[in-house]
């Protein structure tokens, strides 16, 4: 159902998103060491994590608009090069080459600017995929959300154990630069279906941004996105710190426990996408299958998250982390599938760009809010608040969007 070149381009997008989450999540893996070296409180650490999203959020909206107007190949390459250089720069923070906390914050801002291109560009490509294959195609996006933190946690833990946290950033940044080579060579798959010279459809083929913003269903899926990213960024930003600071695990043990969540997330996301695509190809109602899968997966995630702070012991903890990750797995995939399906191929770039831009506001507010909660009341209330936010966003979506179907723009 997919041509070979387009499939390869989508795989490369997935690899870029994995690198995206390796690079942005590296600061969380290194958090115990960075906090101690720079004397950061939980609140100040939350600000460092949050600063990434100060540029990432507007960059998503801008990239979504650009993806509907210019070459996805060029736009993606510029963004990846920007965030790779910023990641390498993180390895020199506090060494005399770059300053301390201020340099860390500025480099996070630059990283956010570059990483904003990935999801809009990926969604622009995947919106061309037929309905019965779109779920598994989106595993390249949602899978990258899990593979990135998984590799970053395990690989970053090992690099820090034997070399140091600065070397970890340098290695990850260089790996991201290498990705540019196959991407630049994959011209046929990236530009398949676009106009001459790699340009996207003419601007009038996509609906105006104002038309997207006027839709109630757009805002409902965006609120769901806010809730979903709040839950993911809590795991990425705070689970490693909780395991080390509150439970007393070593860096290596923390890496293994945290990686369990991401492995289970990949399995849950892939299983959910496969089941939905199979049902659609068999004549099933895509809207019904997607809604049911979303609600069941969110319920598993929320219950698991709220139980985690009350569980002790290695094996019970690892089992619950795995169940929580498996439950979360289908959610990111469905966030993108729903946006692409409702927008249609012509407007998928700007819809998903706006959706992810506003949806990632939780990345600005969440880390700071959780840092304040942890400083004032400890980790247990932070887990409960996160679960409540995810549940509330899902409930609003369930009420406001009774059916997932393409919007009739004209």
How many β-strand stretches? 0
Assembly state here? Answer: single chain
Q: Which segments are poorly predicted (pLDDT under 50) over 5 or more consecutive residues?
A: 193-204
- Count of individual helical segments: 19
| Average pLDDT figure | 85
SSE string: HHHHHHHHHHHHHHHHHHH
Proportion of residues in β-strands:
under 5%
Percentage of residues assigned to helices: over 70%
- Cα separation of the termini: 28 Å
Shape: globular
Biggest beta sheet attributes: none
Category by helix and strand content: mainly alpha
Q: Tell me the Rg in angstroms.
A: 20 Å
Q: What is this entry, summarized?
A:
This protein has 410 residues and is mainly alpha-helical. It contains 19 helices and no strands.
Describe the structure.
It is a single chain. The protein is built from 19 helices and no strands. The radius of gyration is 20 Å and the shape is globular. About 3% of the residues have low confidence. It has 410 residues and is an all-alpha fold. The two termini are 28 Å apart.
Chart the SSEs and their pairings:
Layout: H1 4-29, H2 31-38, H3 42-67, H4 72-90, H5 101-115, H6 118-126, H7 134-137, H8 139-162, H9 165-185, H10 187-191, H11 209-213, H12 216-246, H13 251-281, H14 286-307, H15 314-328, H16 330-343, H17 348-359, H18 361-377, H19 379-400
Helix pairs in contact: 1-4, 1-6, 1-8, 1-9, 1-12, 3-5, 3-6, 3-17, 3-18, 4-5, 4-6, 4-9, 6-17, 8-9, 8-13, 8-16, 12-13, 12-16, 12-17, 12-18, 12-19, 13-14, 13-15, 13-16, 14-15, 14-16, 14-19, 16-17, 18-19
């Amino acid at each position: 159902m997919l041509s070979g070149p387009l499939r390869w381009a989508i795989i490369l997008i997935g690899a870029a998103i994995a690198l995206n989450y390796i690079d942005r999540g590296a600061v969380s893996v290194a958090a115990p060491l960075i906090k101690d070296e720079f004397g950061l409180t939980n609140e100040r650490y939350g600000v460092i994590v949050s600063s990434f999203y100060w540029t990432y959020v507007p960059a998503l909206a801008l990239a979504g608009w650009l993806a509907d107007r210019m070459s996805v190949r060029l736009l993606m390459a510029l963004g990846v090069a920007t965030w790779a250089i910023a990641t390498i720069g993180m390895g020199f923070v506090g060494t005399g080459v770059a300053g301390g906390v201020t340099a860390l914050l500025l480099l996070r801002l630059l990283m956010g600017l570059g990483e904003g291109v990935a999801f809009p560009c990926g969604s622009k490509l995947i919106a061309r995929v037929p309905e019965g294959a779109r779920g598994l195609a989106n595993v390249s996006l949602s899978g990258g959300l899990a593979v990135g933190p998984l590799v970053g946690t395990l690989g970053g833990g090992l690099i820090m154990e034997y070399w140091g946290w600065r070397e970890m950033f340098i290695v990850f940044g260089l790996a991201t630069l290498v990705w540019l080579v196959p991407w630049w060579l994959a011209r046929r798959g990236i530009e398949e279906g676009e106009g001459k010279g790699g340009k996207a459809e003419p601007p009038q083929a996509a609906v105006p941004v104002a038309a997207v913003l006027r839709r109630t269903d757009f805002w409902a899926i965006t609120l769901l996105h806010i809730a979903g990213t709040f839950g993911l960024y809590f795991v990425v930003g705070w689970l490693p710190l909780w395991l080390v600071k509150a439970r007393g695990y070593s860096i290596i043990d923390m890496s293994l426990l945290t990686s369990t969540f991401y492995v289970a997330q990949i399995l849950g996301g892939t299983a959910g996408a496969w089941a939905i695509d199979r049902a659609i190809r068999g004549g099933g109602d895509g809207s019904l299958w997607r809604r049911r899968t979303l609600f069941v997966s969110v319920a598993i995630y929320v219950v698991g998250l709220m139980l985690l702070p009350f569980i002790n012991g290695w094996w019970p903890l690892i089992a619950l982390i795995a169940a929580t990750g498996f439950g979360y797995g289908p959610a990111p995939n469905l966030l993108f599938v729903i946006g692409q399906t409702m927008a249609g191929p012509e407007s998928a770039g700007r819809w998903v760009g706006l959706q992810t831009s506003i949806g990632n506001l939780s990345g600005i507010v969440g880390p700071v809010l959780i840092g304040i909660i942890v400083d004032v009341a400890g980790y247990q209330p932070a887990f409960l608040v996160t679960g409540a936010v995810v549940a509330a966003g899902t409930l609003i979506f369930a009420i406001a969007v009774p059916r997932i179907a393409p919007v009739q723009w004209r």
